[in-house]
Fold this protein.
Amino acid sequence: MHGILAVLVITIITLIAGNSAYEPSEVCFSPEEMELFNNINAYRQKKGLKAIPASAALTYVAQVHAKDLYNYYEESRRCNLHSWSKNGPWEPCCYTDNHRKAECMWFKPAELTGFDGVGYEMVYYSTYPGDVLNMQVGALEGWKNSRKHHEMILNKDIWKQVEWEAMGVAIHKTYAVVWFSDSPDSGKIIQVCD
C-alpha cells in the first residue's frame, strides 16, 4: 500500500513540476558551492568511498531551499530546517523531528524539477562570522561533527545499503544545503557560475 501511495504522490508531483521554473541549463555552482562539493567528495574518497556525481536538479533544489530558509525560516519547536515556507511554487512543508511527514522533504526534487528519484537533505546554519565567511569549510566540519550527518555523508548505519548517485549543493548567506539521492541525474554537467 505504501509503495502504491508513494508512486501516486511522485506522479502527481511530477505533473505539478511541469509548471516549475527549473531550467537545467541555468544551474551552476558558485565558487564556494563548488569547493563544498569538492570537499565532500575529497572527504569521501579519503575514507575509501567513490565520489558522488553533481546533479543539476538537486543543486537547483538545494539553491532554492537555501534561499527559502534564509528569507522565511523561523525557528520553532515544531518545524525544523527541512521545512519549506508557503512562499514559493511548491507545497509548503513543516518537517518535524519525529519524521512523520518525511515525504514532504524526500519528494521536493520531483516536485520542483521532475527529478526521477527521492532526495535526502542536510542543512547547516551558522551566524558565526568565521563560518559565514567560509561556509564551504564550516558546513562540512559541522556535518562531520554531527553523528547522523556524518553517517549520511559516508553511507554508514541506516545509509549503509545506499549508494549515492547524485549530489546537489547550495550556499546562501548563513545556510549550506546538500541533497543526496541514490538515483542518478541524467541532467547536464554543472559548471562554476560566471
Observations:
- The first strand starts at residue 120 and ends at 125.
